[in-house]
Amino acid sequence: MKSSAFLKSILHPIETTFALADVLTFIKRKKTCTLGLKKGGKRFQPYNYHFACESCNFFYMTVEVEVAQNSTFCPGVERAIKIVEGELSGSRKTIYTVGPIIHNPEVVKRLESLGLKVLDPDAQPLSNLEGATVIVRSHGIDLATENKLKETGALIVDATCQNVKRAQKAAKELEDEGFHLIIVGSANHPEVVSILGRLDKEATVIENPEQAIKWINENQGILEKLGVVAQTTISRDLLQSVVDSLRGKCKEMKVRDTRCESVTRRQNEALEMCRRVDLMVVVGGLNSSNTARLADLCRKTSMKTVHVEDPKEIDKETISGAKRIGVIGGASTPDWQIEDTVSKIKSLVSG
């Protein structure tokens, strides 16, 4: 058998076909990614690597990288990014967003490098914006903030995700029908804040079934009619568990399932992948609620899972012992972060 140095030299993933019949057979099978990811104008294809000893068919190394079909921007995020890029390319004026357009720091940094300015309405007054273009983030904004922007004379461009708008509308309809509104989600998430900020009456945010039970015990007086909506990125199981906790505790309950179908498909695919792989790499902003939930779902299956914001965070220890690695991104993860993640894994395998 050849030396380890020789073995290491042939493990580098290049396009050349090796003539190694006397020692090793090098097999590289392409696994076409249905995403059609692009970098530098080329179609991106993750690979499966197999290194086998021809004499005994013993696999020295088997590392397969499977990229989820639902791995990059969801339609709402893609639309928001296109709106920002369109405004930046068509104007010499400063373009603003109310809060980060999406929860992905690397994407926001790229847009800022193109001239975008991010406003924080909680930390700075919304003034001196007359004639300026201000883009509403994909998570939406509350009505008070929207009115302040109008008062300044800003030109408002709405990039709110259509699913978030649907949740806002459903919440208001339930309120108008006389239901006390329950929002299942994270109280501090900007999407939930935008829903709360468009209601006339007080509503309740519940994050889990334990909170639901506690709230029921403390609020017996308002349990006549309960209306329920969901933060668009929560899981089906979370919504169902909260609804089950509330069911039977009020005279009337109406549930509007406002979860995003795209996020649900992504969550379902992640769970399916957990049955086939021995390591899940979830790529996306650490401040992204839907990406964090994706990682949590994978962990709940007892799957070894890492959530990385930057592919540079992956090292040999991360993938140690893994023979089949699943890669999936959150709804705010761009294609180039997925591609860079796969490239980093490939470099670690070949290094």
Textual characterization of the structure:
The chain has helices at 4-10, 75-89, 105-113, 143-152, 162-176, 190-196, 209-218, 236-246, 261-273, 289-299, 316-319, 335-350; strands at residues 24-30, 38-39, 42-43, 47-53, 58-67, 95-98, 116-119, 133-136, 155-158, 180-184, 204-206, 225-230, 252-255, 279-283, 305-308, 324-329. The protein has 351 residues and is of the alpha/beta class. The protein folds into three domains: 4-72 and 263-350, 4-hydroxy-3-methylbut-2-enyl diphosphate reductase, catalytic domain (Cobalt-precorrin-4 Transmethylase, domain 1, 3-Layer(aba) Sandwich); 75-161, Rossmann fold; 163-259, 3-Layer(aba) Sandwich (Cobalt-precorrin-4 Transmethylase, domain 1), CATH 3.40.1010.20. The strands form four sheets. Strands 1-4-5-16-14-15 form a six-stranded mixed sheet, with helices on both faces. The protein has a four-stranded parallel sheet with strand order 7-6-8-9, sandwiched between helices. Strand 12, helix 8 (236-246) and strand 13 form a beta-alpha-beta unit. Helix 5 runs parallel beside helix 6 (190-196), helix 7 (209-218) runs parallel beside helix 8 and helix 9 (261-273) runs parallel beside helix 10.
Relevant terms:
six-stranded mixed sheet; 351 residues; flat; 3 domains; Cobalt-precorrin-4 Transmethylase, domain 1; Rossmann fold; single chain; disordered N terminus; 36% helix; alpha/beta
Topology diagram in text:
Layout (H helix, E strand, L loop, with lengths): L3 H7 L13 E7 L7 E2 L2 E2 L3 E7 L4 E10 L7 H15 L5 E4 L6 H9 L2 E4 L13 E4 L6 H10 L2 E4 L3 H15 L3 E5 L5 H7 L7 E3 L2 H10 L6 E6 L5 H11 L5 E4 L5 H13 L5 E5 L5 H11 L5 E4 L7 H4 L4 E6 L5 H16 L1
Parallel strand pairs: 5-16, 6-7, 6-8, 8-9, 10-11, 10-12, 12-13, 14-15, 14-16
Antiparallel strand pairs: 1-4, 2-3, 4-5
